[in-house]
Design brief:
The complex is a heterodimer of chains A (301) and B (291). Chain A folds into two domains: 69 residues, no CATH class; 206 residues, MetI-like fold (Orthogonal Bundle), CATH 1.10.3720.10. In chain A, helix 1 crosses helix 13, helix 12 runs antiparallel to helix 13 and helix 13 packs across helix 14. Chain A is built from 14 helices and no strands. With 301 residues, chain A is mainly α. Chain B is mainly alpha-helical and 291 residues long. Chain B has one domain: MetI-like fold (Orthogonal Bundle). In chain B, helix 1 crosses helix 13. The longest helix of chain B has 35 residues. The two termini of chain B are 41 Å apart. Classes of the chains: A mainly alpha (301), B mainly alpha (291). At the A-B interface, helix 1, helix 4, helix 5, helix 6 and helix 7 of A face helix 1, helix 3, helix 4, helix 5 and helix 6 of B.
């Protein structure tokens, strides 16, 4: 049945073109699977490498199968080897990232929801300029704000701290969260709000009773987007924090780059997987919302 | 007083967002702009110094290499992402079995950080144990693949990893675009005897002009800002052969303490992005208003 989808609409086609079609479909699947292997290849290599011993790595190839499920390098990547200086491992930085992500996602989503609500349901003169004003923040290259930000965090006494990173991520998340909520609320009929206003409902009541209950999809999109962006951030993390306060991406990079002893690729790969697993899980579980975030308001890389 | 509060409540609620963005985006960009016209070294100085930093910037060999690399990277990154993205989108649009699974596979790199994927690619591309060894072990004894440590070729490893990360995104954009075309148009063309190839080449792809435009803008934007991937993959090396503006900016500011020069490079990046974004925003707004 699959083979005929092309030709079903015009049955007058002859047997001959049926074969061409079949050939075309095989070609189609061939190309699609070829690309799928290109995309899956690094993930596969990461997983199998993390399960090998260094001995196996030196003897086998990238693709060779590990001799067994050996999670030792995962344990080392997560909890270290247990000796003092120079023993870097990801566990504390993983928690740093959690402590940074949760408040930053919450605040930026909340502010974005409120701003999006005002911009669409309490319109005022010049509101589209305000929107444009905020929207432009999605696009600025962060290099143009790094220097003053570093100084500001210093003045506030929160440089090299989780609080500082929460502030940075909240602020630079606002343009995106506002964009998401604004575009979502624009399609909610304003009549609903008007009717509620006539009934005497106030600003916050309308938001919590009318808009919030129907906002679940866009909240999911925004939270996933912000979570992914902030968890994966490296620029802010590496510029505004070091040592103990670093988030996981910075720690991963330091671990991989540290050239103190013999390179342990299995530990490197296990670390990379640990740093990538939270966003990957979210993507697999809620891919639909992730893609919606990417394509609907997507402007950032 | 209470009346005033009630009347202005919406604006008060909106104030934090506007205030924060005004200060942390616009204020900061202006500050950086100002500093780029001063002779600041480790600490910012506020006496104006004219265009000295920009002259220094464009006389710097490292900056010129950065710009050169950026142009090469952007061109290849754009071409490969868009071509692969379109091919995948069109092929996936043919009522493919397991489309969901394939789509998930093509797009998952977008969920990972460049540090994670850069770490993986660095391992895959390393000449001693990576792809090169794989082919040698398979019997291709003279196979060499040392791009990662080769001054001439290292920039292309960044292209490989960058395309791998972002091509799925272009696929998603085009797939969404193709799906939004009404079936009637395609049916009508087929009844007129157009083959599948003609339908796509002559009718559907030209209709995708806004999608091309969006992909172009987003990809250029990603490439101008690319920083993490280079840090994870090459740190700008070997030597300075893969350095790029974003890396130049942070290194000049935080390792060499040339704050003024660094601000000048940041402003160059800002202008490059603005040159792409402002026409885009303008056309998007016009499209929205036309609706």
């Amino acid at each position: 049945m699959q083979d005929n989808t092309q030709s079903s609409s015009y049955q007058q086609l002859e047997q001959k073109s049926k074969y061409t079609n079949m050939f075309l479909r095989w070609f189609l699947y061939f190309v699609l699977i070829l690309f799928a292997s290109y995309f899956i290849f690094p993930l596969y290599v990461m997983v199998v490498t993390s399960l090998k011993t260094m001995e196996e790595i030196r003897q086998g190839t990238l693709l060779s199968w590990p001799s067994g499920l050996n999670f030792e390098s995962w344990a080392v990547a997560w909890g270290g080897r247990g000796y003092g200086a120079g023993d870097t491992f990801l566990r504390p930085y993983f928690w740093n990232s959690i402590k940074m992500v949760v408040p930053a996602v919450f605040f930026s989503t909340f502010i974005g929801a409120m701003t999006g609500y005002v911009l669409t349901k309490w319109r005022f003169k010049g509101d589209s300029w305000v929107f444009l004003f905020l929207l432009f923040g999605c696009f600025i290259p962060f290099q143009a704000i790094l220097l003053p930000m570093a100084r500001t965090l210093g003045v506030l006494g929160i440089s090299n701290s989780i609080i500082g990173l929460v502030l940075v991520h909240t602020v630079y998340g606002i343009p995106f969260t506002t964009l998401f909520f604004r575009n979502y609320y624009v399609s909610v009929p304003t009549e609903l709000v008007k009717a509620a206003r006539i009934d005497g409902a106030g600003f916050f009541k309308i938001f919590f009773k009318i808009l919030l209950p129907i906002s679940a999809p866009i909240i999911v999109v925004t939270v996933i987007w912000q979570f992914t962006q902030i968890w994966n951030d490296f620029l802010f993390g590496s510029t505004f924090s070091f040592g103990e306060a670093a988030p996981i991406q910075v720690a991963l990079n330091n671990m991989v780059l540290s050239s103190t002893s013999v390179k342990e690729y299995n530990v490197d790969m296990a670390s990379a997987i640990i740093a990538g697993v939270p966003t990957l899980i979210v993507y697999v579980l809620a891919g639909k919302y992730f893609i919606r975030g990417l394509t609907s308001g997507a402007v950032k890389g | 007083m209470f009346k005033w509060l009630e009347k202005n409540l919406p604006k008060i609620v909106m104030a934090p967002a506007v205030g924060l963005i005004g200060w942390f985006v616009y204020g900061f960009v202006l500050w950086t702009l100002y500093i780029s016209f001063t002779n600041s070294k480790i600490l910012p100085k506020y006496e104006l110094w004219g265009f000295g930093q920009y002259e220094k910037l464009w006389a710097s060999r490292k900056w010129l290499i950065s710009v050169d690399n950026l142009l090469v990277f952007t061109a290849l990154f754009l071409i490969f992402c868009i071509v692969i993205g379109i091919i995948l989108a069109i092929f996936l649009d043919q009522k493919i079995r397991a489309e969901g699974v394939l789509r998930t596979i093509y797009l998952y790199p977008m969920a990972l950080s460049f540090i994670v994927t850069g770490t993986a690619w660095k391992w895959i591309l390393n000449p001693t144990l990576g792809i090169q060894k794989m082919f040698v072990d398979w019997g291709f004894e003279n196979f060499t693949f040392d791009w990662l440590v080769n001054r001439e070729m290292a920039i292309y490893t960044i292209v490989i990893a960058g395309v791998w990360q972002s091509a799925g995104f272009v696929m998603a954009l085009f797939l969404a675009g193709l799906r939004s075309v009404e079936d009637e148009i395609i049916k009508a063309a087929k009844i007129d005897g157009a083959g599948l190839f003609t339908v796509y080449w002559r009718i559907l792809l030209p209709m995708m002009r806004p999608v091309f435009f969006t992909s172009f803008v987003i990809l250029v934007h990603i490439s101008i800002k690319s920083y993490d991937l280079i840090v994870a993959l090459t740190q700008g090396g070997p030597g300075i052969s893969t350095t790029m503006p974003a890396l130049f900016m942070t290194q000049t500011a935080f390792h060499k303490s040339q704050v003024g020069l660094s601000a000048a490079s940041a402003m160059m990046m800002f202008m490059a992005v603005a040159a792409v974004i402002i026409p885009y925003l303008y056309s998007e707004l016009r499209r929205e208003n036309a609706r």
